[in-house]
Amino acid sequence: RAKIEGRNRLCFFDPDIQAKQEERAKLEAALHSALVRNQFRIVFQPQIGTDDRVTGAEVLLRWEHPELGMVSPLEFIALAEETGLIIPIGLWVLKSACHQLRRWNNLSGWESFTLSVNISSRQLHQEDFIANVSEIILETGVSAKNLTLELTESAILKNVEDSIEKMNVLKARGLSFSMDDFGTGYSSLSYLKRLPVNELKIDQSFVRDLGIDLGDEVIVRTIIAMGQSLGLSVIAEGVETAFQHELVRGYGCHHFQGYLFGRPQDAKEFESNHFDQSSSLLFPNK
Ligand code: C2E
Ligand code: MG
Ligand code: MG
Ligand code: MG
């Protein structure tokens, strides 16, 4: 009896935990080979201005696994961070994004089109970060002013001094920074003033219940007011309905992103959905 209890207390014999550990180990092994096996894709989600035109896109990573199917970044980015695999994966994303950006900026009417690339905490605080970003910009021939890096508050807070220093160097080279998932962290106005960000990206959790949850309305209006008083651009993510769009636009938000304007799409789809060949103008897919 004592033996059974003792055994039950050992987590190694808990079939649930064991199954989870096996699954994680499998995912990690698969993630290790995903780059060389060419299983990653990038997709693009349009970003819209107040005149309803597409101004740019966010680059989002997709993993197409032969057996697991499409694996969501929500399932593997954290693992990639923990294992350090996010470094080579992140470089691949940035390089692929810049190659696409170069092609699009070369088209007439697309010269000021921007791409926003998500950068993880581990990437930002890596020693070679500035050198790697600079090299990719040089090698792909993009204009740095068309490239925005999205950082979360928590990534910045992991080492504020290192973040500020690196952001300043890259900003001097023409890059822009957007603070992703804004409002979910602890930013205060005084701390935000020190950060060389160009844009605040309102987290979609606050946009979702606009018109239903009064608290969210207060948060969204406050973020927009903060952005305006600091001279920063503000973009709302997760805009799914015309009603949400009307509200955030009414509060003074500058840019919008969400399923209302387009899902994340591959480069070909993005071109056919958002590039009007007759007028060489960009337009949202509404
Ligand atoms: P994020 O950067 O906040 O990206 C926004 C997420 O919201 C994306 O999910 C996007 O597909 C989704 N989304 C966009 N519009 C709507 C909408 O109207 N409604 C709803 N419900 N969702 C919407 P996705 O692509 O699954 O990415 C999830 C997260 O994974 C991203 O959140 C980002 O943190 C991370 N991620 C994605 N790609 C990369 C990458 O290349 N590098 C790094 N480090 N992280 C990435
Ligand atoms: Mg993002
Ligand atoms: Mg976001
Ligand atoms: Mg988010």
UniProtKB/TrEMBL annotation:
It comes from the Bacteria. Residues 24-278 form the EAL domain. This is EAL domain-containing protein. It comes from Methylomonas defluvii. The lineage of its organism: Bacteria, Pseudomonadati, Pseudomonadota, Gammaproteobacteria, Methylococcales. The chain holds residues 417 to 702 of 702 of the full protein.
